Amino acid sequence: MRTEQITAKALKQVGDDRYKLALVVSKRAEAIANGADVLVELGNEKLKPADIALLEVAEGKIGLDAIVEKK
């Protein structure tokens, strides 16, 4: 799947809010870079943490509620 298609699908998951998408992807990419388990099948692809995070959002595996700290 192309990056544009993945991004469009991910945007729909966060209510077409680019700010929320950027926030979720950046926080999740940081977690992945620090060793968090990947929630999607990657196959033989070598993707950067931000690309993996975007794919996770697009597939509905992670959302804004997962990164907001509970008080």
From TrEMBL:
Q: Which reaction does it catalyse?
A: RNA(n) + a ribonucleoside 5'-triphosphate = RNA(n+1) + diphosphate
Could you tell me which Pfam families the record lists for this protein? RNA_pol_Rpb6 (PF01192)
The UniProt keyword set, sorted, is: DNA-directed RNA polymerase, Nucleotidyltransferase, Transcription, Transferase
One BP term from GO: DNA-templated transcription
Tell me the domain of life.
Bacteria
Assigned EC number? 2.7.7.6
GO CC terms in record: DNA-directed RNA polymerase complex
Which EC main class describes this enzyme? transferase
An example of a GO molecular function for this protein is: DNA-directed RNA polymerase activity
Instruction: List, alphabetically, the SMART domains matched.
Output: RNA_pol_Rpb6
This molecule's function is given as: Promotes RNA polymerase assembly. Latches the N- and C-terminal regions of the beta' subunit thereby facilitating its interaction with the beta and alpha subunits.
Oligomeric state and partners?
The RNAP catalytic core consists of 2 alpha, 1 beta, 1 beta' and 1 omega subunit. When a sigma factor is associated with the core the holoenzyme is formed, which can initiate transcription.
Family according to the record: Belongs to the RNA polymerase subunit omega family.
Give the protein name, as stated in the record. Answer: DNA-directed RNA polymerase subunit omega
UniProt lists the gene as rpoZ
